[in-house]
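Pilot study result, target chain (368 residues):
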Amino acid sequence: MLKGIRVIDFSFYLPGPYATLRLGDLGAEVIKVEPPEGDPARNTGEKKNGDGLVFLANNRNKKSITLDLKTEEGQTAALLLIEEADVVIESFRPGVTSRLGIDYERAKEVNPGIVYCSISGYGQAGTASNLGSHDLNYMAVSGSLSQMKDKGGSPVHPTNTFADLFGGVTANERILAALVKKERTGEGEYVDLSLADSMVSLMTNHVIYEQETGRETGISLLDGELVCYSLYETKDGRYAALAALEKKFWTNFCDGVNRPDWISSHWSTTEESNTVFKEIQSLFAGKTLQEWTLFGLEHDCCLTPVLEPSEINKTPYFQGKNLVWDNEDGTRQAATFPQHKSRISTRPPLKGEHTRELLSQMDKNQNT
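Predicted structure:
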């Protein structure tokens, strides 16, 4: 869908590269601009074949060019790339692109129709704009982290970087909207994308519920307080998710386990004093996760297994979709779109792998 769109990616680590990963999977040509030492993600955390796993996970379908943006030569080359691009994404701290000579104002001079997206923690201006921050900070200040608490009321440390990933999706949403505007008017656009702001946008239900009811945990039906919408431990120490909110699904569940007497307890709570809740807990503890998985497939009752990453491809829910696969170099990948794997996917590029090709192309274009 994005064939013919050229994206220049000056971002590092996760939010920006995840955004351009998704754009590349949609067919855009993504040129990753790295410093001489490479994207820091190449050298962070566990590695495979010399590159960090986070880098390998988020940089397929891209070309890599190394430029020293602290030099005049590097800045000139960067502007030549921008001149022939449709989109620019950067994730430097506010003010850095100005010092490097590749900020939006400079980019607009060489390419008036450019769509330019700056991804930062708190935006380009404001009280916290110059503060260092990471995913956990954005989760915390947005109110999102407070929605993940254990039974004792303490926030649970997430093992997925929700703000980074959702921030990348949000950046793409605004980039694609800007491209539509450009198609209609010929005008470019500057996108100031704050990761913390993006997470606040997930709190639509919670802020109105707090205002009207005083509840800080959003929709009461969905917070695990009801027996029909909760997590249950299985015989083998795993968990199944039951989400039978509608009466028909709850009835299907009760009939499936031969307990029609539970139907009237649809809206009862997950309190220890609730006999039905204790009986449901005992029921789930009597079968393995595999048995409950099969039950959920046989009975239309919104019952699914809580799976680990290694089990995604093995579940019938994604049968035949190949949402997780090994690239040509053996690097395991996850599809950003269900149809993505049906297209050719290139491995993450070596550092500066396409530098000579792209510089030669730019020289040719300058001389014609």
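One observation from the pilot: The radius of gyration is 25 Å. A full batch analysis is planned for the follow-on phase.
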